[in-house]
Design goal:
9 helices; Quinone Oxidoreductase, Chain A, domain 1; globular
Amino acid sequence: MKQFENKNQSMMKAVRQHKFGGPEVLSYEDAPIPEINPGEVLVRVKAIGMNPPDWYLRDGYKMLPPEWQPEVSFPVILGTDISGVVEAVADDVTDFSIGDEVYSMVRFPSYGPSRAYAEYVTVPASEVALKPAGIDHIQAAAAPMSLLTAWQYLIEVGHNEQNPLQANKHQPIELHNKTVVVNGAGGGVGHLAVQLAKWKGARVIAIASGKHQDLLMDLGADEFIDYTKTNAEDILRDIDLVIDTVGGPLTGRFLKTLKPGGSLFPVFPLGFSGAEEAEKLGVSVSATQVRSSGQQLSELASLLNDGTIRMVIDSTFPLFDARKAHERVNLGNIQGKIVLTVE
């Protein structure tokens, strides 16, 4: 193994929890630096992007059916999205070297031994990509899960894992000259879906609260609907695609906005109960689950590097203040992404 300079260092700082609960269960404490295995790199973390699975795990996956709730062994470290510097590489890894600046979504959706809310994390080399040189570690850490989600829903799935909630494999649709609605457009996945759809030549209608209007129009939206003032489903018709980044039981309200042959992509499909209505209307409902992909992150790096895709940062917190970052989550109406920084 090619290793970092301080070979005697065995401990790091990490945010761990020893039970499920609210932000108060997060504890900034000492933890062992994870051991590197074949096929992996060890990354010294500079920034950590926060995502909904972080608070789902923190709470104990209460939003999932009991049979889907994974076994968790405490203490547990949250998080998947990181940007940092390679500190060590396994002997069989040839694509990365010590000192490389990289970003990654680590081991999602599996539950691995090394997670993101820490000073060091091990990552399978297949899930790592060189950090785009044109953005900083904060922006890079904000990208992986949200950008891969938008990409795998809208552009290219890139994996063969079947969504257990549907019989058919998810297929993105051709976006050029289509009318695409993005619900929850101000959030992490939403603001990226707006940009990707526009990049592919779609007419984009963004739905969010009024505070996001100027940002979303600046990111390329052609039209904006403030959901606090207008029920979008009452005024929209003949839409080709709705990507609902909020999803859940209410996502079916968008079915009547679609033209025959149109599609609804709920990013959070649990609770959808409109299959019969969709069939009667001649529209399709499809979802996938994001998977880690270093290859796709490498492809996306060029879009981040040249500014085609812009990451919007809601707020940043130092790693030791992860509890406050999760309290910010509870306030809602997040614009873009929340990022933890590692000094």
